[in-house]
């Protein structure tokens, strides 16, 4: 562990020792300053050394009462300067107290006390030494008092800036963690939608084809055999898609290139063929000039068509449906219609399919409308952007 870190932690636990620590160098400096003569070293003036040590005693509680200690030490130093002018003591304890007040107190109080102390120290020194207040020695004491206050304010500002920077870093880290959790949640919701679409689609086809096989098993074994083959193909496709979708959860570190292929608009013909095998005639048409489509838009369009046709097959009394892809300059319009009768009985749907289609479209910045047509049947219209903004992508 770093020695400086251990030392700081120890001082943080012993605040009285930390507050009294500046007294040690002040006493050493006082001894050295009073022992220096014009031509040689001599014995220190112990009176000044003792007074310096006594004036530093209140510093042991300077962080608890910074204003009171600043006033107390200032009064003591001014008194000694007035009654013992021959000693010429330096107001060292007052300077430390002024620094502490500037560091811990408010700005207005710190500067008011600091400037008043600077003026008082300069005036008392000039009066007791019959010197001018603008002389070098007097101004030096004025500068020391102002510098102590300025240093305290500078250190405080630096600490506040560092604390603010640390707070911003912690806040940014928390926001990053929240964003990561939000993305994980969004990904889980997306996977749940995929699972819903895959299971509902394939089970609907399997159920329809099983009914066909059951109906034709005795009357037409060949067609029943063909229906069973379609059931096998759809069940295998369902297992493959479920395995690929759940694999996203089991392999979170895999790159996009290692996952199963994403369904695209080119796969709509195969999707329609599967519905035709189950008795629903689906026609896929394209209009406009085909343009490059973002992968997210292709997947969204495919899932919307898949869900709309699945709902048609489950809940509408119809045998025909149409899918139209209209390519515009900046958007792709996907329209799925059926010719079900307005009074046709509906299945017991939960509405989750429509909710999922709306959420899929809005997730990439598109819109979706769905409802019955005046002439009969049901229609789903989705407006999807061809290219996605970075945020939507």
UniProtKB/TrEMBL annotation:
Catalytic activity: ATP + protein L-histidine = ADP + protein N-phospho-L-histidine
Cellular-component GO terms for this entry: membrane
Native organism: Streptomyces guryensis
Superkingdom to which the source organism belongs: Bacteria
Ranges for domain Signal transduction histidine kinase subgroup 3 dimerisation and phosphoacceptor: 187-253
Assigned keywords, A-Z: ATP-binding, Coiled coil, Kinase, Membrane, Nucleotide-binding, Phosphoprotein, Transferase, Transmembrane, Transmembrane helix, Two-component regulatory system
PANTHER family for this protein: NITRATE/NITRITE SENSOR PROTEIN NARX-RELATED, NITRATE_NITRITE SENSOR PROTEIN NARQ
Domain Histidine kinase/HSP90-like ATPase: 299-387
The protein's name: histidine kinase
Keyword ATP-binding in record: yes
Enzyme class: transferase
CDD domains for this protein: HATPase_UhpB-NarQ-NarX-like
Record field: transmembrane: 20-41, 80-102, 109-127
GO molecular function: ATP binding; phosphorelay sensor kinase activity; protein dimerization activity
Domain DUF7134: 8-159
Pfam family, one: HATPase_c
Entry's EC annotation: 2.7.13.3
Chain segments annotated as coiled-coil in the UniProt record: 155-182
């Amino acid at each position: 562990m770093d020695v400086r870190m251990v030392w700081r932690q120890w001082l943080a636990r012993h605040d009285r020792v930390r507050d009294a620590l500046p007294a040690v160098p002040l006493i050493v400096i006082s001894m050295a300053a009073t022992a220096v003569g014009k031509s040689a070293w001599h014995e220190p003036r112990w009176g000044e050394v003792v007074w310096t040590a006594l004036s530093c005693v209140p510093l042991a509680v300077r962080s608890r009462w910074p204003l009171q200690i600043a006033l107390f030490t200032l009064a003591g130093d001014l008194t000694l300067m007035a009654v013992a002018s021959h000693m010429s003591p330096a107001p060292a304890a007052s300077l430390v107290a002024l620094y502490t007040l500037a560091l811990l107190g408010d700005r207005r109080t710190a500067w008011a006390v600091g400037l008043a102390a600077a003026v008082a120290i300069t005036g008392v020194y000039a009066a007791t030494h019959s010197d001018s207040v603008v002389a070098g020695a007097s101004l030096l004491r004025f500068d020391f008092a102002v510098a102590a206050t300025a240093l305290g304010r500078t250190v405080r500002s630096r600490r506040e800036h560092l604390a603010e920077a640390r707070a911003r870093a912690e806040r940014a880290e928390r926001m990053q963690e929240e964003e990561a959790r939000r993305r994980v949640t969004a990904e889980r919701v997306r996977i749940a939608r995929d699972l819903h679409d895959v299971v509902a689609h394939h089970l609907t086809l399997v159920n329809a084809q099983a009914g066909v096989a059951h109906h034709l098993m005795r009357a037409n074994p060949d067609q029943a055999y063909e229906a069973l083959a379609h059931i096998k193909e759809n069940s295998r496709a369902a297992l493959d898609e479920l395995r690929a979708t759940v694999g996203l959860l089991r392999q979170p570190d895999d790159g996009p290139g290692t996952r199963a292929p994403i369904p695209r608009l080119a796969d709509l013909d195969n999707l329609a063929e599967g519905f035709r095998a189950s008795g629903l005639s689906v026609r896929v048409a394209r209009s406009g000039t085909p343009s490059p489509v973002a992968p997210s838009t292709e997947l969204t369009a495919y899932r919307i068509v898949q869900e709309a046709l699945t709902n048609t097959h489950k809940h509408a009394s119809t045998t025909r449906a149409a899918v139209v892809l209209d390519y515009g300059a900046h958007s792709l319009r996907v329209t799925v219609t059926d010719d079900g009768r307005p009074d046709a009985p509906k299945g017991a749907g939960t509405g989750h399919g429509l909710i999922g289609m709306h959420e899929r479209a809005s997730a990439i910045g598109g819109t979706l409308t769905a409802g019955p047509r005046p002439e009969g049947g049901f229609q789903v219209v989705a407006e999807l952007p061809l290219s996605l903004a970075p945020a939507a992508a």
